[in-house]
Every structure is written in structure tokens, then in C-alpha cells.
Design brief:
Elements lengths: L2 E6 L3 H15 L6 E7 L5 H9 L4 E3 L1 H7 L10 E4 L4 H13 L7 E2 L4 E2 L4 E2 L4 E2 L4 E2 L4 E2 L4 E2 L4 E2 L4 E2 L4 E2 L4 E2 L4 E2 L4 E2 L4 E2 L4 E2 L4 E2 L4 E2 L8 E2 L7
Parallel strand pairs: 1-2, 1-4, 2-3, 5-8, 6-9, 7-10, 8-11, 9-12, 10-13, 11-14, 12-15, 13-16, 14-17, 15-18, 16-19, 17-20, 18-21, 20-22
Length: 221
């Protein structure tokens, strides 16, 4: 029996999350997930048209949907995946879903390469072509975008986003709600604080404190 799920976000990563769900279903004799539809508080007309082209329904704004499921038994409520790129926004939305008693699904694209003893937190979304090396730990609701590489013994905190083609080397610690930009590199053995933004194509060569924006090669803040 397939697991019912709603996706939050009609924009880019929300639809990439739908791609992961489609790919998972395509590898199974029976669908693993039944996509109920997409929630979004303010989808553009263009994104609504994109959902329509892929035959995925728009369920409306979040609070309206929460009101609609108020009388539904918790056990009958669908799972969810938050397809929102911003770590801070994602954390806020997850708190609302948890308050409503819903559980997040962890999603892994079939083309991702997963090493030994890898642990994924609830709500993690792993996209196509990702490499997670041995002994990697991902916190709750981490997003790892297409083509990103996470080296051995690395630990990502909750709500971390790793954007396309970023490389995090071995034995790196990345704290909560940090965004690692597209094509950026974090060198081995470093720590990156919470609420950090690492810019696209930056190269992190030293430990990074909380709350800064890192740019350039080598990375500066």
C-alpha cells in the first residue's frame, strides 16, 4: 500500500521533490508514494501551470489545508515533505506541521550513491546524482541538491541546504540552518556555524562562525 504525501512548495525545489517521488515510484513494482498534491501560500501562475502540466493538484494555502484536516484522525493524515530551499523558512514550516501531528518522509533519489552507515534525519530530501560517502550523518529536513558530494564522516545539522554541485569534504561539521551554495567547496576537517550562507563557488578554507555570509576564494566574511 502506497504512502500518501503532500509536498510544500510549488517553486523549484518543491517540483524537484516531486521528481524524487516520481523516481522512487518508478523503481518499484507498486507506487511507494501517492502524491496528494502541493501546498503553497502564494504560487505564481507559472508554477501553477507547471503543476498542471505534470498532473499534480494544487491544494491551496497551508492554513486553509490545516483547517480542512482538523477533523481527520492523526493516523489518517498524510506524510509531508517541505520542498522549500530556505533553511529558515523550512524550519518554521516544519514546526507548524509537527504541531498538527504530521510526520515527514525522508526521500532519496534512486541515482544517489549512499555509503555505509549513513544516517538520514526525518524529512531529508536527497536529489539525483548526490554522493553521500561513508559514515555521513544528516540532521532533520536537510536538503542535498543534484550532484552535491558529502565526504566521509561529515555531519550536517538540522535544516541544512547543500545546493547543486557543492562539495563538502571529509570530517566536516555543518551546524543548523546553514546554506552551502552551488558549486562551493568546504575543505576537510572544518566546522561551519549555524545560520551561515556560503556563496556560490566559494571555497571555505577555515572554520566559520555562526551567522556570517562567506564569499570568494578563499572564503571571506
Amino acid at each position: 500500500m502506497s504512502r500518501r504525501i503532500v509536498v510544500v512548495g510549488a517553486s523549484g525545489f518543491g517540483r524537484e521533490t516531486l521528481d524524487v517521488l516520481d523516481a522512487v515510484n518508478a523503481t518499484s513494482p507498486e507506487p511507494v508514494f501517492d502524491v496528494v498534491g502541493v501546498l503553497d501560500d502564494g504560487p505564481s501562475l507559472e508554477n501553477l501551470a507547471r503543476l498542471e502540466r505534470r498532473s499534480v493538484g494544487y491544494l491551496g494555502p497551508l492554513e486553509q489545508w490545516f483547517e480542512a484536516i482538523t477533523g481527520v484522525d492523526v493516523a489518517e493524515r498524510p506524510a509531508y515533505a517541505v520542498g522549500i530551499g530556505s533553511p529558515e523558512v523550512r524550519a518554521r514550516l516544519v514546526a507548524r506541521f509537527e504541531a498538527a501531528g504530521l510526520r515527514a518522509a525522508s526521500l532519496v533519489h534512486p541515482t544517489a550513491v549512499i555509503g555505509t552507515n549513513v544516517r538520514l534525519g526525518e524529512g531529508a530530501v536527497i536529489c539525483a546524482g548526490v554522493i553521500l560517502s561513508t559514515e555521513v550523518v544528516l540532521g532533520a529536513h536537510c536538503h542535498v541538491n543534484p550532484g552535491a558530494v558529502i565526504g566521509h564522516d561529515t555531519v550536517l545539522g538540522d535544516f541544512v541546504s547543500v545546493n547543486p554541485s557543492a562539495t563538502i569534504s571529509g570530517a566536516v561539521q555543518v551546524s543548523d540552518r546553514t546554506l552551502v551554495g552551488a558549486g562551493s567547496v568546504v575543505l576537510q576537517g572544518l566546522s561551519v556555524g549555524a545560520d551561515v550562507t556560503i556563496g556560490a563557488a566559494a571555497c571555505v578554507t577555515r572554520h566559520v562562525p555562526d551567522g556570517v555570509v562567506v564569499k570568494g576564494v578563499p572564503g571571506r566574511w
